[in-house]
Amino acid sequence: MKKTIALRAALTAAALLVTGCTAERPAAPAPTAPAPPTSSAPRPTAGTGAPGAPAAAAAYRKWGLKPFAAPPAPPAVKPVVRGAGEPVPVISEIPTEEKIVFITIDDGAEKDPGFVAMMKELKVPFTMFLTDAAIRADYAYFSPLVAQGHGVANHTLTHPNLRTLSQEAQRREICGQQEKLKERYGTAPRLFRPPYGNWNEATRAAAGTCGVDAIVLWRESMQIKNMQYQRGDRKLHPGDIVLAHFRGPSELKGRTMTEMTATMLRRIQEQGFTVARLEDYV
Q1: Is 9 or 247 the better-scoring residue by pLDDT?
Q2: 50, 70 in Cβ contact below 8 A?
Q3: Contact yes or no for 102/127 (Cβ under 8 A)
Q4: What confidence tens digit (pLDDT) does each residue in 115-152 have?
Q5: DSSP letters spanning the chain
Q6: Could you give the CA distance from residue 224 to residue 109 in angstroms, rounded to a whole number?
Q7: Could you tell me what percent of the chain has a pLDDT over 70?
Q8: β-bridge mates for residue 243, sequence order
Q9: Among 211, 200, 116, 189, which residue's Cα sits nearest to residue 160?
Q10: Which has the closest alpha carbon to 59: 137, 155, 139, 123?
Q11: What is the pTM of this model?
Q12: What is the mean pLDDT of the segment spanning 237-266?
């Protein structure tokens, strides 16, 4: 129990550093193994422009939200692709002119059942960047989210500052988590996020050997009530990647994961954006 509390505290302290995983902005561009997801798993898509829209609108009202506009159809050709023999691309946004953003949620320390219910009802797509040290005691919590169609991505085994490690040590952190997530959820992740946003060329080389197609950073991070922006205009831009964390009342000054998520969705809507699925563009 003491080890679990210490681990949670360490992850929380790391997550709260600057923006929750932003020690530095690079100069260049979070039990029994569950059954693997099947190809018939739904793909969550924000919006209510389909049959069942009244029920979806009611679900949004339950959480104090208005329905999102349906996102555009994803491009026929993904705008971010790792070419054969090329280094792993590092991205903070997706090149697009559509008013869409992409939600990513890190670590996995907080496991609020209400959040699972919320995502099932709202069907807002997001990608989970999971750390083994934060979730190893309860991988099963994330199984319903995987079954809903949300993306699973890699956030290392132990959440270290990768720039302090050798390339081989980085490879063990990244490849090791690839293997664990594949074992638990049936598919090896294609996307990777370095803890604190810290990476170097050794990170790219190591990630490339682990089957990673892109290193995903971010442009905005959701704090307790407001977003923190990297740009001076303090606005969302088309294609921005938004960072949040699996956090609970102890980290959110008494607010819950669902309250923080509802606020984040409201901030996105206030600026006229909707949410798209990151994996459709990378």
Answers
A1: 247
A2: yes
A3: yes
A4: 999 999 999 999 999 999 999 999 999 999 999 999 99
A5: -HHHHHHHHHHHHHHTSTTTT-S---S----PPPPPP-TTS--------STTHHHHHHHHHHTT-PPPPPPPPPPSS-S----TTPPPPEESB---SSSEEEEEEEE-----HHHHHHHHHH----EEEE-HHHHTT-GGGGHHHHHTT-EEEE--SS---GGGS-HHHHHHHHHHHHHHHHHHHSS--SEE--GGG---HHHHHHHHHTT--EEE--SEEE-SSSEEESSTT----TTBEEEEE---TTTTTT--HHHHHHHHHHHHHHTT-EE--GGGT-
A6: 16
A7: 83
A8: 104, 221
A9: 200
A10: 123
A11: 0.86
A12: 97
142-165 per-position pLDDT tens digit: 999 999 999 999 999 999 999 999
- Supply 49's token pair: 């422009």
Specify the length of the chain in residues: 282
The pLDDT tens digits of the residues spanning 11-65 come to 444 444 444 454 334 333 333 344 444 344 567 877 654 446 788 899 999 999 9
Do residues 247 and 260 touch, judged by C-beta distance below 8 A? Answer: yes
State how beta strands 100-107 and 274-275 pair.
parallel
**Alpha-carbon distance values, 149 to 114, 123, 145, 152 (Å):** 17, 9, 7, 9
Q: Which residues pair with 248 in a beta bridge?
A: none
